[in-house]
Structure formats: structure tokens, C-alpha cells
Amino acid sequence: MAEQQGGAPHQDEAAAKPNMIPGVKHVVAISSGKGGVGKSTVSVNLAVALALTGAKVGLLDADIYGPNIPMMMGVEKTPEQKDGKIAPAESHGVKLISMGFFVPEDTAVVWRGPMVHTAIQQLFRDVLWGDLDYLLIDLPPGTGDAQLTLTQLVSLSGAVTVTTPQEVALHDVRKGMMMFQKVNVPLLGIVENMSFFLCGHCGERTEIFSHGGGERAAEKLGIPFLGRVPIDPAIRAGGDTGNPIVVAKPDSPQAQAFREIAAKLAAALQTGEAGAAKSRIASLLDKIKRPATGN
Ligand SMILES: Nc1ncnc2c1ncn2[C@@H]1O[C@H](COP(=O)(O)OP(=O)(O)OP(=O)(O)O)[C@@H](O)[C@H]1O
């Protein structure tokens, strides 16, 4: 990817590739095969952990069926409009837009395919994201309209999948990963959430949802395992109060787990970039070496 100073994609490049968001360097989808595995919790903590490294980070809550990122980030105010565009909210150093801002609370929304398409398109096109190093997208669970729309509308740097460790959740992971593979979205890795519970009183470790499934799935699929996060009341409380654990308890092992996963994700994106640059150079060299055929 050609870059201007500061790392954002060049405006010309963005114009040439209409699916790129001008000024946004990496767009990463955070997905899950099924609901309730902690995808939003992981999205929020990774976004804030990346912002704490000094990166410019945006978070797009595309979970049209249960947009709870504003609550998890402690944002109540609806974003302002400027010249027909939407200025994202900002919290814990992260720019934030959610479908939840535009849908009245406690309203059940029935989204048909084209509506999903239009809504997600607007969140990309009409939001003043500015220059970002990372735009994380919290997808709805599963492999439906929103996921496919997204892969059509925006050039994704890759997808991360969140799962719990048990076999039934992993079955859905494989399905989700296959969808991304089919549409040529690089698989950046698997995060295993709710991996184990450490008793606060006796320190005993209990593996509520079985053991090691995320890592085994990563191995089988040949994609990176980004790390595991324990099940912990402080992580849940961080979500409920709008204070993600990486800021609420930065010295805790749970926060450390999220920071390590964020670092691995950043490294995977850089490797992807280096890999793409290498293959561009290799193909250039190949062209230079190959004698002209005259036609
Ligand atoms: N590691 C964890 N420890 C304790 N609670 C957690 C953990 N991860 C998530 N939770 C809690 O589990 C619930 C579901 O998490 P979350 O909303 O992040 O899941 P989700 O996969 O995004 O769900 P959905 O896609 O169905 O909306 C929340 O109450 C959240 O606080």
C-alpha cells in the first residue's frame, strides 16, 4: 500500500480504489460465528489498547441487531452533524460511530438486506473519520447481509474472529472464516475469550467452556492465534460502566492480555503490508528480468 507521511493511504490511491476510506490505513473486521462470545468487549478493549500506544483509532459498531458499543465506551451523546456529514463521538481516545446512535433505544428493528447495505454504506461514506491508523468494525455475529455488504463496500485489511473455547462455538468459527476466505479477506487471527476463570478467593483455575479450542482451530485453519482472555467480573463491569478494563484496571492481567492481543494484531497488519510490498517488488523484478517478447 502506497503511503503518505504519517502512514495514511494517499488520497490518489483511495480515489483509484473506491473501496478504500481516504485517510484510513487499516480497516479490520472483528467477527464471531455466534452471538454472546464477547466480540464487542474484545473490539472495545482492542481499540482502546491500540489508542493507548499512540495510534489513531476509530471504532465502527456495525452490529445493527444489538449495537452496544456506545454503552461499553461510556458515550451517551448522539454525534453532531457538520455540513451533511457526521462527526464521530470520541471516548477513551477512540473515534466512535454506532448504529445505536441512529436507532431509538428499545426499538426492535427489522432490517432487510438492502437496508443493511444502505445503513452500513452511510457509516463509511458520511462519517468524518479523518486520518486513522486503524478502523475496527464490530460486526453482527454470523455470516449474514451485514458481513457480505461490508466486504463489498470497503477494502478490508483483514478479519479477526472472536470465539469461546468449546467445540460448538468453533464450528461457527470455521464457517465464518470460510466466508472471509471466499471473498479474499485476509484472516488475521483468532481471539479466544472467556478461556478460563481464576477464582478471586482461592486462585483455582476453572475452564468453564472447555480448553484450548481457539488455538486448535487457529492451527487447523493455518491462521495466527492472537491470544486468550479470561472470563472475569471486572471485564463485564468495564463493559457495563463504559470503562473498558484496559483503562479501568490497566495493571491487571486481563488488561495485559488485551494489550498483547492488540500488539499481535498491529504486528500482523504490518507483516501483511510487508508481504504485499514484497510481492509487488517480486512481480516488478520478475517483469524487469523477463525479456520483452515484442508483442
Ligand atoms: N472475558 C469476559 N469476562 C466477563 N464477561 C465478559 C467477557 N467477555 C464478554 N463478557 C460479557 O458478556 C456479555 C456479552 O459480551 P459482548 O456483548 O461483548 O458479546 P458479543 O459477542 O458482542 O455479543 P453479540 O454479538 O451477541 O451482541 C457482556 O455482558 C460482556 O460484558
From TrEMBL:
Gene3D superfamilies: P-loop containing nucleotide triphosphate hydrolases
Entry keyword set: ATP-binding, Hydrolase, Iron, Iron-sulfur, Metal-binding, Nucleotide-binding
InterPro entries for this protein: Mrp-like_CS (IPR000808), Mrp/NBP35_ATP-bd (IPR019591), NUBPL-like (IPR044304), P-loop_NTPase (IPR027417), YlxH/NBP35 (IPR033756)
Record GO biological process: iron-sulfur cluster assembly
Keyword S-adenosyl-L-methionine carried by entry: no
Pfam families linked: ParA
Purpose of the protein: Binds and transfers iron-sulfur (Fe-S) clusters to target apoproteins. Can hydrolyze ATP.
Subunit field text: Homodimer.
Record-stated family: In the N-terminal section; belongs to the MIP18 family.
Protein name, per record: Iron-sulfur cluster carrier protein
